[in-house]
Amino acid sequence: MPESRTTLNPTSEHNAPYLIGMLLRYSTFGAAILLLLAGLLLLKWWLIAIGGFGVALGIYDVLQSKHAILKNYPVAGHIRYVLEDFRPEIRQYLLENDKEQVPFSRQQRALVYQRAKNVSDTNAFGSLDNLYAHGKEWFLQSAISEPIQNQNFRIIVGGEHCLQPHDMSVFNISAMSFGSLSANAIMALNQGAKMGGFTHDTGEGAISPYHRKFGGDLIWELGTGYFGCRDATGHFDPQSFAEKAVDPQVKMIEIKLSQGAKPGKGGVLPSEKITQEIADTRQVPMGQDCVSPSSHTAFSNPRELVAFWQQLRELSGGKPVGFKLCIGQPWQFMAIVKAMIEADNYPDFIVIDGAEGGTGAAPVEFMDNVGMPMVDGFLLVHNTLVGSGIRDKIKLGVSGKIVSGFDIARMIALGADWCNSARGFMFAVGCIQSRSCHTNTCPTGVATQDPYRQKALDVPSKAERVASFHKNTLKSLAGIVGAVGLQHPSQLQPYHIARRLDDGQIKLLSKFFYFTDEGALLDHSARADVFNQMWVMANPASFLADNDALIAYNKDSRDKGKETKAPTIETVFSKVSHSDGGRLTGNINHTFRDLPDTTS
């Protein structure tokens, strides 16, 4: 065996390799010394400046003890850190292909930029997608397709307890707080929303003066920190809330239970990003991190949550109140559903945030490994509401990597009522996906509180881009809806989309995803028995699972036998007819409704 494998402290027989290594390690430092000497001899000031800087940097590197690379490679070691800082940009612009999504592909970003700038978004020479790849999805166009004239698709949000329903677009700005985003970015987003007639979610950072400047419709998000309506101890202050919630600009109230980027974890706004304006807006002290608790103090169980949203509804003058969450333990959401049925009091809307979402910073473990993705989370919420017989009482929104007309159409086909986008609208105001949102060094002035950096974001021109992105995305959505042979996105159904499986087979989404039968949970007859089991575990008095009820249910199922046979084509399509000019008009996702009035 070679001596190098058996000797713990090998010594080289020759000094040459060591000397060569030393020369290579200190070559850049030596070059700086030579430049300085040459400058002194030739009396060239620029050589003296460059060489002097290099020598000073090299001396600092040799003397410091914090960075081993800089001590071993003085001056030259800094090249590594420079390349590391610019790695995301180098990857985006030089290495990644147009379809590589990390987290948004170049093609996705280019699509937003083109629509925001009102330039052509068409491509030539065929699709860049592999249309035969596993997971590829496509809409099934109709032979009786026709263009849609009214492309301003809207819905009404507000249930029987709501006194001020909100007429809103099917595509809106998702939650992003002032503090996370700059003042100029907030103003551009809100002015764009005002110009385009869609709605802007404030995020949990409260309503800032920049949200109010242009008067765009707002959804006020209320997080665990109750920013903008908190007392000195950080608890909810009803009087402070009521004073702000009755503002006509505030159209809806959204309780944030959790968010996609870091579900189950409170948010943190670093102290270096907190200005006096942010402190005043959020009602927090200066000089320390602004921390959102991981859970609410205004309620501790599902029944108290129902009482809380009713309190907010009354304090706001009857405006629509709902909640946003990234699904975690399913029985906890089902417990909320049981509590609302028990009280006969329903939220006006629910927004499902996918784990793939997130405009701010979050621990990698949370971004990658905690929380349910958007489609899975949405289907659980949708199926629970259908299975409990109350889907028609609550509107559902979704958010999570939605930037195109196809993204919106797909989620509405699965049963959503509207879609939100955060990062899509960030791209519209100039974001380049540098992924430096948490460092206060955003290069485009979007996600920074640095007054000099955010000055580069011109509010009037970026507001026009926000409005244009919204308008052109709805135009794209209208193209898909018209191609399918329909008149409004609400008519889209899961059988309008096909998906290729890993074995090459093709299935309609109505057969690929599970859709429960209406009211099936109430008598434990859901075809997927896991839904029955989770429903039994749900306890309206607590967010903890009722394991005793599950044990009793499973014993009863074994004793009596359980009918869980898969549905036949006849049962799945029992409501499908071909009477409307050859169009499929079934209601598999249980959201089909009369067309909105298009005369206005």
TrEMBL record:
Residues 169-486 form the Glutamate synthase domain. InterPro entries: Aldolase_TIM, GltB, Glu_synthdom, YerD. GO terms for molecular function: glutamate synthase activity. SUPFAM superfamilies: FMN-linked oxidoreductases. It comes from the Bacteria. One of its GO terms (biological process) is glutamate biosynthetic process. Keywords: Membrane, Transmembrane, Transmembrane helix. The chain crosses the membrane at residues 16-38, 45-63. Coiled coil: none annotated. Belongs to the glutamate synthase family. This is Glutamate synthase. It comes from Psychrobacter urativorans.
